[in-house]
## 1
Amino acid sequence: MRTALFKGACTAIVTPFRRDGLDREALEKLVNWQISSGIKALVACGTTGEPSTMTDGEWAQTLETVVRVADKRVPVIAGTGGNNTARVIALARRARAIGADAQLCVTPYYNKTTQQGLIAHYAAIADEGSLPVILYNVPSRTGLNMEPATLAEISKHDQVIAMKEASGDMIRLADMIRLCEGRIDFYSGSDEVVVPLMSLGGIGVISVVSNLAPVLTSRMADLMLAGETKSAAELQLKLMPLIHALFLEVSPIPVKAGLSMMGFCQDILRLPLISMSERNRAVLKEIMKELEVIP
């Protein structure tokens, strides 16, 4: 029987920067805090980690730091996704050599491809990347929505282990889960629908909000796994204002602003991303105070 890579909450962790490069000390601190707060896995160099503006060396250094500090306490998932299949495969091989446990691979963007192209893309990655694959469907970012029948076909590959679903469409999700017939696991890729997704059979979330509120996010997912739906739903509703605030501007702009308020890292992003506006920063700060994330 296949064993899930993780169950519960996983954080798609930010990459702290300095003006002259990576801030490894801040990243180490974040990793230790996330794990001690109950987070069950970590994604390094996912969208929240700004890999699009990293050099290949910085990508590898970031992943190496997370793998080293996690030290097998939780699985580490490398963000490898892109719109160049050969490059994704190369990154997957490098991630495996560094020590990652799996890869998170978003659907291709811009040049996108067809549904048959998706099947071919992921088959090549699964065959040649030598690392378990978590698929990532986020049409708001990519302009490409994976169809349930497409996922059902891709899920037949042994190296494909899970789907991070972030379309927000519960009907589509239900069809995905039904058609995959238990071959892969499902994680929410949208913090606002963790409880609904898990009620349909998902086993956790790959989260942005857990960067700021790992204890609450982890507890919500754990309660769902324990069948305590009412209590989990209460936490889902409690987190909603913070979740909304983290998308007042393009992610990860708000989450990095929030972590800087908490003293975990500097509020440094790379162009084309810029720091959060003062108006929205004030809104985020007030919500963080209300949730007692900051004093």
Note: The chain has a mean pLDDT of 97.
## 2
Amino acid sequence: MTCDVLVVGAGVSGLAAAYGLVQRGHDVLVVERQVHIGGNAVSSRFDGFLMEHGPSTMNAAVPEGLEFVGKLGLDASAIELGRNVRRRYLLDKGRLHGIATHPFGFLVSDYLSPGARLSIMTEILRARRTDGAEETIHDFVSRRFGAEFAEKVMDPLAAGLFCGDASQLSVTAVFPKLVEFERKFGSITRAVLAAKCGSQPGRRLFSWPEGMTTLPRHLAQLLNGRIRTCTAVKKLRAMASGFETETVSGRIRSKAVILAVQPHVAADLLVGVAPDAAAAAGDIAAPPLAVVYLGYETDQVAHPLDGLGYLSTNSTDRLITGAQFCSTMFTGRAPQGHVSISAYIGGSRRSEAARLPDGELVPQVESELGSVLGITGTPVVRKVCRWPLGLPQYTLGHKKRVAAITNAHQHVPGLYLTGNYIDGVSVANCLRAARDTTTNVSSYLRQTQQVAQHFLGSKAQ
């Protein structure tokens, strides 16, 4: 079989790239080794509850993602965060702290000590760093805002966004805007004031009535007949006029290939094709993650659940990195008179905990949530989802690794990679990276077509 572009991987990144290329008139085929499409964007509905196995929101603050959703016509059916999302919660030393979502929330809350709050207010007076050395999130934030803010706010945030450790993650890779703010304005505070940032960034999040699986399912419908599931790729070969890809069901020839797979899969496929990119992809860790979803009757839970959920500071006596109040975030996530909560375990902090058997994991999660949220009795539903390989970790040196990966086409023309390890782990970031990949691949195909036409024209003369 032949096609213009073979896309390996039918997650959001692969489907979005394939759709973009089809819209530009290219012949595209998508192969996926799993039975289902969508990657980790999986939503399950049962007994009136809806569980997100992976991502749970779209971020409207990423314009490319919002634009893509609009072009698909999915903006009309999108649902906004529930009105009861009023506070952000952080768990420290067994106590849950509710902090207002307005810009001065941390300054008026007793969550941080007076000294830490003073350190935040005086950030504008600190000199910028000019040596350009890469820093971890923890080191950068400690330098700008103080160690307490780093440990009690940014460490939990890094765990919530990446299931990672702020002392290992690169601030340049994870929060490039913070680095740019310091470079350009000399102060994060000064930059925020200049930008006049909105007071409630959390309300930029949205989803759909049937969850995040709506996006890949819609893309799959638009790509009808162009997706082959249960089709694992065994080997990739670069040829003089493109690529030959060996799959479990036969060989496919294409002018270009997009690898939209997890970094460890990309590393295996690239070993004999693009060694530098293979080594870089292989260096990206993705520690395991477990999601424990619990449903309760409303009167079983003493806490008002008036937020997105809570994040926890790094503590060896806590199993849960963070939890989402699913039924508060969006309507239709639990039946009338019930609430639902998702707890996240594992990642860089407690990777071994994600491997605990259900018989050990679930009771510990129930006990921990019970003590934090004032829950009595047993849940009416329990579900566990496990990701043996979770979110990619943007550790120090990640930008260099990504450069080696995304520049693979310079050494092997027609070879492109995209995914959640390129430019952010959120769905919106994946859509942005897929859009860029679509543009690059389409440009490459046009150039090769022009060269071929020129050659044939010269030969005819």
Note: Residues 103 and 215 are 32 Å apart (CA to CA).
## 3
Amino acid sequence: MKATLTVLGSGTSMGVPTIGCSCVVCHSSDPHDRRTRPSVLLQFGGKVVLIDTTPDFREQAIREHITQVDAVLYTHTHADHILGIDDLRPLSYHRDGKIPLYARPDAAEFIRNMFRYIFDADYKFGGLARLELKPVDGPFDLFGHNFEPIPVIHGETEIFGYRFGSAAYLTDFSEIPEPSFARLQNLDVLFLDGLRHKPHPTHSTVENSIRIADRLGAKRVFFTHICHDLPHEATNASLPPHVRLSYDGMKLEFEI
């Protein structure tokens, strides 16, 4: 089955432009250099699956005319990946049942505690998002298709990327454990953390992610979680032909 992936956001945790920054990329007139916080949307068989709810989710949803979300997958619990959770409210009102949220068991518990007003409160006036946490630690079926969590290391913390059909989405990692490489074979589309050229303790560099892309041999590779060190056009010109920076609003098809 064909699925469509939409890049909702391709930026780093502070977004691009970054508040108070006077650099060339933050003041660029190229719309590809405007990067909201990192997230993607998957559409297949009439279903819509979101990966992460960023602080920019409201803006992203309005921009992409999102009217439906049937499930959310969380990679980890950093602010730039979860703080848009309350903006699921209007989407949760116009459906049968609660929106399921899939996350590592530790991440699900963190989200429950941080947003206790959603999950544990009894607010008689309504107005709360209708959400249900579903901890996962292995492959699971979602609307008839296999979704596989892929463990990656983000600094000193293990978090999840996800594989779905011929595509995989790995954001926010500094290292990919050896067992995870075996789960990433025969990919058409691969998203990798590509923060910048300069080393970072919790993120992959452009050069490291190119090496990972070469090892895995995916046909199409896109970098995400991109900071303001990387101008879109100039960086793409320096990358291998099958590797590109993703950008907000980018759409592509793949087999799920």
Note: Residues 206-216 form the longest helix (11 residues).
## 4
Amino acid sequence: MRDIDLTNITEAAAQTFQGLPDARQRVLVQALVKSLHQYAKDTQLTHAEWRAALMFLHRVGDISSDKRSEFSLLSDVMGLSSMVDLLASDPSATPGSVLGPFHALGSPWLSSPANLIGANDGQRVLLRASVCDTSGQPLPAATIDFWQNAANGLYWQIDPSQPPDNLRCQLKVTAEGRFEIATIRAVPYEIPTDGPVWLDLVQPAGRSAWRPAHFHLIVSAPGYRTLVTELFDAEDPYLDNDVVFGVRDALVGRYHDVIDPQACARIGLTGSTVPVMNIDIRLAAV
């Protein structure tokens, strides 16, 4: 088209992607073009604002690496990551939550009950959980991928003092669909505050940098949707102010003191009482 104006530019731009061979990609790209154009019209976007946005994205790319994705952080603080999680969640199953930037493939396989405490400081606790379908039937073929931060709030990727396999594992559930992990109580932590997402966007808005304490899990079973989710501590002060909008009521668990001398001996606790969080995880069928 040679006669482009405000009345036809959006459709003209969208139509140029009609030749994308993948139908879903075509839908996504054309809808994005239309949304971006409508945003520019609704806000009366200026040249200066457009250039500032491009420079912001350049800074986001410049600080990203194979160990840090500032783009993922941008998606998180905008609520987009959680929106995608919520769209993918089955209302009869355990809801999904943010994957986060610190998942790593290749965690060691352990047997349940697993013990991740090692040389870590922090309060020793047990996570006891069951994995079942949406009707409550156990899923004995389920597997768990688990990771969390250390007592200093850091994950192993950004703390050279931690070994690479610290506080993470994979395991198979029992024949009853249950598993147990002995670990330390997760602690709240701040998102990175040295990059453009914080310095240019979140901090100027007066928002908190904090995430409430949580465990990360990926739960898989043949014939069921893989669940990427988090488990939160009911006593955490940041539950109502999570910077990445990851908290769901169904994912908040509470520690209860349980008398279990054998478990205490197994994880190095004196006495006979151990703090236990019990969680039921429900997977939706494919």
Note: The mean pLDDT is 96.
